[in-house]
Predict the structure.
Amino acid sequence: MSRISDFIGKSAVDNVKEALRRACEVEEYHALLSLTEERALERAELVDKGEISGRLAGVPFVVKDNFLAFGAPTTAAAKMLENFNAPLQATAVEKLEAEGAICIGKANLDAFAHGGSTENSAFGPTKNAADKTRVAGGSSGGSAVVTALDVVPFALGTDTGGSIRQPASFNGVVGVKPTYGAVSRYGVVAMASSTDTIGCFATNADDANLVMEIMAGRDDKDMTTLPDFWQHQPGFTKKKIGLVKQCMTDDVDAAVRQKTLDYAEKLKQLGYDVEEVDLSMMQHSLAMYYIIVPAEISSNLARYDGVRYGHRAAEVKTLAELYGRSRNEGFMTENKRRIMIGSFVLSSGFFDAYYMQAQKARTLLINEFKQLFAEYDALLMPVAPTPAFRFGEHADPVQMYLADIMTVPASLAGLPAISVPAGTSDEGLPIGVQLVGDYRSDGDLLKLAAEVEAA
Ligand code: GLN
């Protein structure tokens, strides 16, 4: 797989043409919903003339189709936004463009990022890069697959409960979910505001670090953003890694456990002590997540009313019918399920029993992480209980939710977590492992991953 440096110093027009050619060559994976060909080639010409320069000059990339970006519609893979043309670009995209990077297309996802397989896309699923009979993972499935298939050296995704880490693991690439607030979410379609993060896919840890460092930092258009911390990370000093015991039980696929233990061995060879640790609140994390996240989804999706923008039902007679039919036609089943759950847990009489209770449990989880990071530099665990599953295998929504067990804890706590390739199963399916760190240790996590890669 190619690295960012392979594209630097070459003709940007050639880089872009090659990425577009490759995108067409692998069309059957259905990883991309659109190409931004015209705009990409215009920008490439400006780079070649020296009118745009920077650390990513002429490097092609792809964004998940829930990022507002010019050159193609922003659909969030939903009928609701099928013809929506962004009036502005996401801050993350603007920052990459300011360094000369060139967006060549928009990647498939579960509609509104609700899901873990990209099967919930209104425009059809994406196939796994290693096995076309299996899912790409999700919700950022398309971004993971274009990176793994060498269409582009990096791609952007969003991670609310695992949507970067899990597809990265399923396709054998690096995936970064940063500290909550590290990267501006301005111009990205909102899912759950208290856990949404912007991150990337890359073929190696150093490239991921560069892309994240460029995107990170304070943005006055997103009041949750943190002042830039990426450059100023002290490095790990405790030399201790905790291996989360709850993730290593018989319920977890044997190959997944073995790859995690192999990775622990590599960390030991680099001088780290690896010890089993308890993350007991993990067992409650799905219950918290599937209360808090739908609650926030129901609120964030209230804006799609068929009036201001998005899909508008035809031939309606009353306002209630306009709202009802527009939303019924524009949302997928999974979107509706979450709106209903969210409205329920926020309704009077149930708010205290569900939403408040879940927020209290969330604090206990955060405290448990805090205690662990007093002693350990980072935690090691699998990304998902199994490698990529087959299409339709998790048709029951609860089965699908259960597969998120290992990614949602870091999301609920707002902690940085990265997914790194750790080998393949006997069937040749990629398996990733996850490193979770304390707040603002994102760069250190990636440095550690780079050390393991080099060894
Ligand atoms: N699979 C998780 C969910 O369905 C994560 C989604 C995400 O991170 N966007 O909520």
Summary: The first strand starts at residue 32 and ends at 35. Residues 302 and 442 are 33 Å apart (CA to CA).
